[in-house]
Amino acid sequence: MNDRQKTALDSLTHIAEEVYADLDRGDIPTMKLPLRSKRNIEFDPMTQVWKYGSMKTVRSAKTTQGATTMLRTAYTTDFINDMIRENKSSTLREMYYISEGWNRAKFHSQDESNLLAEDLETITGCMREDFKLRPEESGAQVFGDLNFTTLTKKGKWKTTNCIDDVPENGFNVPYKVEDDTFKIDPGNTTFVMAIETGGMYARLIENGFPEKCNCALVHLSGQPARSTRRLIKRLNEEFKLPVVVFTDGDPWSFRIFASVAYGAIKTAHISDYLATPTAQFVGITASDILNYDLPTDKLSDKDIGALKAELTDPRFSDEFWDTEIRAMLDMNKKAEQQALAKYGLDYVTDTYLPEKLSQMGIM
Amino acid sequence: MNDRQKTALDSLTHIAEEVYADLDRGDIPTMKLPLRSKRNIEFDPMTQVWKYGSMKTVRSAKTTQGATTMLRTAYTTDFINDMIRENKSSTLREMYYISEGWNRAKFHSQDESNLLAEDLETITGCMREDFKLRPEESGAQVFGDLNFTTLTKKGKWKTTNCIDDVPENGFNVPYKVEDDTFKIDPGNTTFVMAIETGGMYARLIENGFPEKCNCALVHLSGQPARSTRRLIKRLNEEFKLPVVVFTDGDPWSFRIFASVAYGAIKTAHISDYLATPTAQFVGITASDILNYDLPTDKLSDKDIGALKAELTDPRFSDEFWDTEIRAMLDMNKKAEQQALAKYGLDYVTDTYLPEKLSQMGIM
Q1: How confident is the model at residue B282 (pLDDT cuts 50, 70, 90)?
Q2: Burial of A108 (0-12, 13-18, 19+ CB in 10 A)
Q3: Which of residues 68-127 of A touch B (CB under 8 A)?
Q4: A119 compared with A253, residue with greater pLDDT
Q5: Is the Cβ pair A100, B295 closer than 8 Å?
């Protein structure tokens, strides 16, 4: 058992101890945790990430609902306790099914069990990965001249260079990327580029962009998984590598950028672990659509609604985003990053990225 | 340029030559290809896969539409020709955008360009991978004691053991898995298990199933990509490894099995490359839901419609499927493979799979 797991075990044991203490005193057991609702989410201008505010919620065993939640908490901590001791892990889906045997503590939907896992993170300050709970898929891939040393199934350390030791699609990021099982040697990498689509990720690899520019590519694969955001954060924080994000040019892609840079509402309790506030947006911007005369699609009603919502989202409240979001609404158009192929397969690496990155002072 | 690419180039050149020959004779150019519609799909009982029938369609430059298609074919073959010579590749999405510069041959949607890529496969008998066209994502992963030797970006051969040389999530399958760039050494593997969900794939890895049973796991990640199906086919055909498929128990998962075993309608022109007719279905079956008393969900109207359609689908016209599909309709229930976690995290590897696989004569 390593330090992270010991901390997780201690934190969970502490939850149980408090319940026992309440009972010993003859009190009805309660649990206090930050209110996990939109009302209690604040954008912290100091750290530039989303965090929970000071509002608390108290769960008491006085009501049936409160008692059920506390019963579920007890079963869940017991389950996690067993997993850590036996060196097992479980998907969030499996935990939901495991609860079939928990009688009245049984979850009625996976939303309930996922929420409880997040509650435990909030209470203990640990991450669900420390509790050995993982999502169905991770999916992110990395390509570039950096080395990751990971534990194989047989418990041996294995170092992989993310150019020399991988097929052309790169290195598969596991669900846990903390230092106890995942070591990073940044090699000659000078910056990190997170990319939304698999097509563009493959394009930059094929065109030799990572080697030419000492750049590590991270494929976000849509809205990025926690391990992907955590890896980007570690590359930025521990190795001082600048991070740029390259996505499609539409409101949903802007949100992908925001979740990398500032954190997401759902994971506000661990923004400090996941968010990279210094990450910069390369494109596709509304200005790019004009300046590079890109093929576009019309904004849908949903796109327009999302852009308007972003105008009041504190994560986008600076001059850059205000200008870009209004420009996109004005022109009523969006564009994909692969639309740059209009000018040929090399245009993105020969022209677009060098121009944009030099404006940003990265290259 | 390797043999596959030379064959692809020759086939494409041949298309152009035929058009020139027509023009030299003073004829209006035409192109003949199998009719790619549901009417012309046949289940070939001999090879047990879906194939196109004998109906042909003729495209003539006499009509505007026919002439446009032939113009697009000319531009596309030229584009592919360039890619093969310059050792580049392109996503299907990029090809769509590239056509922005093709004047009247411009594609109006990606459906049009995808269809043309499939037409070229049908006419030439090559695969779109030989034309250097690839999808956005591949995504499949492999774990087990077998070795893949692949070309790295730098053109060097690299051998990877899919247990010792990979993180716990396994080896990332590239989009091209033909022998010219992807060598297989099956090691001690005695059978292949294709798995629908990432959660179950991770469960079997964590529980040590591949090592214990000399089994190679392939994560299908939903409806499997072409490269995934091709890899399974190669493992089966070239190394005589039995293939079993382990999915959720619902009509959509039955179709995932069918696409691995018998081919899909969309790719009927390359069923010989992609389908593995001897693949067997492990579960979750309707009988499993009863025998193992699994947690279930009610069938939706769409589920019921899909099951009824399968009753008349020749791919499912044997006693096993007829019984299972009717049983599922009768009980009006479906179940996920992770529902086996009801009995604990080890149940699937200690009890369920050994029981099912020994019934099938695999273990």
Answers
A1: very high
A2: exposed
A3: 88-91, 93-95, 97-98, 100-101
A4: A253
A5: yes
The Cα–Cα gap between B269 and B34 comes to: 9
Residue A196: count other Cβ atoms within 10 Å of its Cβ.
24
Q: Which residue of chain A comes nearest to B143, CA vs CA?
A: A153
A107 within 8 A of A96, measured Cβ to Cβ: yes
By Cβ distance, the residue of A138, A166, A340 closest to B152 is: A166
pLDDT tens for each residue of B256-272:
999 999 887 777 788 88
Residues 6+ apart with CB under 8 A from B341: A90, A93, A94, A95, A97, A98, B203, B347, B348
CA-angle at A13, arms to A9 and A16, nearest 5°: 150
A245-249, B92-96, B235-239, B327-331 — which is least confidently predicted?
B92-96
H or E element that contains A90: strand A90-91
Residue listed under structure tokens 């100091």: A46
Choose among B138, B198, B344: nearest Cβ to A169: B138
| B56 close contact with A: CB closer than 8 A | no
- The nearest alpha carbon in chain B to A347 belongs to B98
By the 10 Å C-beta count (0-12 exposed, 13-18 middle, 19+ buried), B211 is classed as middle
A96 given a catalytic annotation: no
Angle, CA B131 vertex, CA B128 and CA B133 arms, to 5° = 65
Cα(B126)–Cα(B9) distance, integer angstroms: 10
Instruction: Give the amino acid at B24.
Output: D
**How far is the C-alpha of B353 from the C-alpha of B268, rounded, in Å?**
32
Which among A88, A175, A221 is the nearest to B345, CB-wise? A88
**Which position among B96, B97, B273, B343 bears the catalytic label?**
B97
Nearest CA among B239, B245, B278, B276 for reference residue B147: B239
Provide, as residue numbers in chain A, all residues whose Cβ is less than 8 Å from the Cβ of B195: none
- Report DSSP letters for B206-269, one per residue: HTTHHHHHTEEEEE--SSPPHHHHHHHHHHHHHH---EEEE--BSHHHHHHHHHHHT--GGGGG
Question: Shortest CA distance to B146 belongs to which of B178, B192, B180, B179?
Answer: B192
Query: Do A345 and B98 lie within an 8 Å CB cutoff?
Result: yes
